Task: inverse folding
């Protein structure tokens, strides 16, 4: 098994309490200023429209009935953009471990005029809650992660079952949510494309491939820069395809 990349140093950005306080503040502000939508991760990189542009460029195209799960949905803005700017009419669900996130996203959905069956939000902790069958209703064609793995990577907690840091078991938590043949697209400012491939395509230090495995499919293109003769970019987007493992 390929070892995972070196861990990041823990930060408050990896703590649930930090995000609960952040979204509680956003809820309070939205009450008095309804135009306040909360923070959009990687907005300076236009990550939300860039992600959708990539998804719409896939060949063959994703069918309109594509079901979509947004991990760590935050304010729900990625799903809202998909609702307003794409042909996808399938099930859309956003999950987050911060209850205030779900309250805020649900409120914003109503403020935007979306009916309850257009998009749903559910409080659920992918790091500590294992089943989710009461709301998940099966696997998804497309699972999105915009900054969530970044936050998980900054969490110092250890998984109770494996004794590993939670970032090392994240891949194994995500895998059962993706249909075989479906896609997982992760956007990160903390990890390069190569490192993301090590975490997810390479096994991520998890418990193996009992639910399938991820294969690299493509990259989301973002502007590049050069500094000191080295080329880099501020954010990376990598798309993986879930494939079955022979014999499973």
Result:
């Amino acid at each position: 098994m390929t070892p995972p990349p070196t861990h990041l140093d823990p930060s408050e950005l990896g703590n649930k309490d930090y995000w609960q306080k952040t979204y509680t503040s956003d809820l309070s502000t939205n009450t008095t200023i309804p135009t306040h939508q909360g923070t959009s991760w990687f907005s300076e990189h236009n990550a939300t429209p860039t992600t959708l542009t990539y998804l719409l460029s896939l060949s063959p195209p994703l069918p309109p009935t594509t079901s979509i799960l947004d991990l760590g949905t935050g304010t729900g803005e990625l799903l809202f953009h998909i609702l307003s700017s794409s042909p996808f009419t399938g099930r859309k669900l956003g999950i987050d471990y911060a209850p205030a996130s779900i309250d805020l996203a649900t409120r914003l959905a109503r403020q935007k005029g979306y009916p309850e069956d257009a998009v749903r939000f559910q409080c659920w902790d992918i790091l500590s809650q294992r089943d989710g069958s009461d709301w998940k209703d099966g696997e998804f064609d497309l699972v999105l992660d915009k900054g969530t793995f970044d936050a998980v990577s900054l969490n110092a907690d250890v998984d109770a079952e494996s004794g590993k840091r939670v970032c090392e078991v994240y891949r194994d938590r995500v895998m059962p949510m993706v249909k075989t043949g479906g896609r997982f697209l992760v956007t990160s400012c903390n990890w390069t494309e190569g490192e993301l491939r090590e975490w997810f395509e390479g096994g991520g230090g998890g418990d193996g491939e009992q639910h399938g495995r991820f294969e690299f499919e493509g990259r989301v293109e973002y502007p590049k820069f050069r500094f000191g003769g080295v080329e880099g970019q501020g954010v990376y987007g990598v798309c993986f395809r879930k494939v079955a493992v022979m014999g499973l």
In short: DSSP finds eight helices and nine strands in the chain. The helical segments are 16-32, 47-57, 77-85, 99-111, 133-136, 148-153, 166-174, 193-200.
